[in-house]
Each structure stands twice: as C-alpha cells, then as structure tokens.
C-alpha cells in the first residue's frame, strides 16, 4: 500500500466543508477524485476518459485525505504519525462489567475522532467475534487535544520529558478562524450582505527538540502511484489546491511525496472498514453493518457558463463497516438540461481494510 503525502507550510489555510456548511479536516475520496481528474484533464485532456475508466474498473483505488504529523529533530525526521477516522462501531469493554470509571472513559472515547495507524492496527487485532465489538481501551493510550489518539509506544519512541508529554497532550495544531467579509454586487458594484468566512489553519508546533509539522495524506494502490501522468496531475494539484476559497490562495501545498506503508492495515477477515466514502450497489446494501450518511450536493461550473445544480445523493462516510467486500459504484450526477459534452461523476468506490480474521 502506498501513501501520498501532501506537505504544507506553517499556518497553511484550508476550507474543507460539508453540506451543512461545517468545516472538516478530512477531504473525502469523491472530492479528491474530482480534484485529481480535473487537474489530469488540464494536462492530458485526450486521455481523461481512459483514466476515469481505470477508477470505474477499480484498477485505481484511493482513500479519503487524512491528517498526519511529522516529528522533526533539526533537519532529521524522527517519526511520522498517520491518522485515520475512528470506526462507526463500539469500542471498549463489556458494559455489564462497567463502573463509574468506565463511564468516564466512554465519554473520553466518544470525543475521539482520529486514531493513529498503530492504534488502528491494535484495534483491529482486538476484535471480539463472540461479543461483537472491539475489546480495546482507547483511553489507556496517549490522547492529543481530546481528538487524536496515538499509542503509548509512539510517544515513548520520542523520549519526551514529563512536561513535554503534557504539552503534547494539550497540543492544538488545528485552529478554526473567521474573517469578516462583505458581498459586492457584480452589476451595481455596491456592498450587500455582511458575513463571516470560516477556514481552518494548520500550524507548526515546537515541543522540546522537536518541530511538529502537520500534513495531509491519502492511501492508494500500487498501480495508481506508478502512473507518471497521475504523478504529474498530483504535482499540479499542489499548485491548484484542494477545497474552497482557492482563488484566495487557500488550500495549496508545498510538495507531493510518496512513501510505502508496511506492518499495519494488512489484516484479512470477514468484516471490513472503508477508508473512503462508499455508495454501495443495490445488491450490496444488505451487507452494511454500521454507517453514517452524508449528503452530496452543490453546483457544476463548466467553462465559465451557467451553473447547474447536481443531483443530490447520500453516501456512507469513512469509517462505515461491512460484512463482506463491497465495491461501491460510480454515479453520473449530471442534471437534466446539462448540455456540455461530459458527464459529472461521483466516485463511490470503496477502499477497504479487513479485520476479524487475523493477518
């Protein structure tokens, strides 16, 4: 499995939103697919349909885009921690054996949103088939800012002092901020509505001898990464950016690098977690065990012409769980009356990891 890292500068700003106009720090696989294809079309317009067909046939697979942290000691990178979204399934102990302290831990676990790859790996190993849940205590691991969970071993590898560990636990490298704006009428050139524009800002942090540098990344299969034209479109994506407000310089990256990932997420089993959004086929719906639905809507802007509203659909969010290898499907969201000679795709293919069956 390959990791595609999108490196960012200090105090980098992004606008990743959802249909509720809420900010998020996860850039979903369908939006990432659209960004990659749009940039590919700028470079190789005559080959775009061929690349789309490879995604449709599942020859190319990508996950959603998640956060990670590089720990730098001077000019040397000491450690990299990748985060994934917490699964939509119960994690903890048997509730018949719980006490007041366990209730406090459950509330702590409920606040967690992201788990490091090492924690994720241990969690998958802790699946209890008989009881039907992950028998694993996330609260016993190291928690950063009430949202991020990393393993105690990962912290021990950094050789931090007690005060430095406390500083790491209180770390908040993601900040939401609002900027006052005024809409201007394009025809009359007069000021209209006053509003606030919300974005997120990711900052470098200093702890002891380490500089913590956040980044975004996504997982992909070998065939996707080996395509040189795909790599060219990813390099262009760094300049073009991801998310909203890109015309203001928001959402850009410094560089794109590729790494291998070994020793984690290599499980097989009779159950699967998706690390991408999924739009299952009709015959796959009965295999869904746990999920959260999110809405996909909005407008299509092509060649600077009239905007068309896309068809509204609901997809299953990252972290959804299935009892077999569902594939998902491609959708064409082109609305009626859309005259331009191209389709509007939503990539609803799954990116799965198994659990419940050992290595």
UniProtKB/TrEMBL annotation:
Belongs to the CRISPR-associated Csm4 family. Residues 268-354 form the Csm4 C-terminal domain. The keyword RNA-binding applies. One of its GO terms (biological process) is defense response to virus. The keyword RNA-binding applies. This is CRISPR system Cms protein Csm4. One of its GO terms (molecular function) is RNA binding. Keywords: Antiviral defense, RNA-binding. InterPro entries: Csm4 (IPR005510), Csm4_C (IPR040932).
């Amino acid at each position: 499995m390959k990791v595609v890292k999108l490196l960012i500068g200090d105090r980098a700003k992004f606008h990743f939103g959802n249909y509720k106009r809420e900010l998020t720090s996860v850039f979903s696989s369908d939006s990432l697919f659209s960004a990659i294809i749009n940039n590919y079309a700028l470079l190789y317009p005559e080959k775009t349909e061929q690349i789309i067909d490879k995604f449709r046939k599942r020859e190319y697979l990508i996950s959603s885009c998640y956060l990670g942290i590089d720990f730098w000691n001077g000019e040397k990178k000491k450690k990299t921690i990748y985060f994934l979204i917490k699964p939509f399934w119960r994690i903890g102990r048997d509730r018949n054996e719980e006490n007041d302290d366990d209730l406090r831990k459950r509330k702590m676990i409920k606040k967690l949103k992201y788990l490091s790859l090492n924690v994720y790996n241990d969690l998958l190993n802790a699946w209890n088939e008989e009881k039907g849940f992950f028998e694993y205590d996330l609260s016993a691991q190291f928690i950063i800012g009430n949202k991020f969970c990393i393993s105690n071993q990962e912290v021990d590898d950094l050789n931090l002092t007690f005060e430095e560990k406390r500083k790491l636990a209180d770390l908040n490298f993601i900040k939401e901020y609002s900027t006052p704006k005024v809409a201007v009428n394009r025809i009359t050139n007069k000021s209209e509505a006053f509003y606030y524009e919300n974005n997120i800002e990711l900052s470098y942090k200093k702890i002891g001898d380490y500089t913590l540098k956040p980044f975004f990344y996504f997982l992909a299969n070998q065939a996707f990464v080996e395509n040189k034209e795909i790599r060219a479109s990813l390099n262009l994506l760094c300049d073009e950016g991801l998310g909203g407000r890109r015309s203001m310089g928001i959402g850009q990256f410094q560089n794109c690098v590729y790494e291998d990932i070994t020793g984690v997420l290599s499980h097989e089993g009779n159950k699967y977690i998706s690390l991408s959004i999924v739009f299952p086929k009709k015959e796959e719906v009965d295999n869904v065990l746990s999920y959260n639905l999110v809405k996909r809507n909005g407008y299509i802007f092509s060649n600077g012409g009239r905007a068309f509203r896309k068809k509204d659909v609901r997809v299953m969010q990252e972290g959804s769980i299935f009892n077999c290898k569902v594939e998902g499907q491609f959708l064409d969201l082109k609305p009626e009356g859309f005259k331009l000679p191209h389709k509007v795709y939503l990539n609803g293919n799954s990116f799965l990891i198994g659990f419940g069956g050992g290595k």
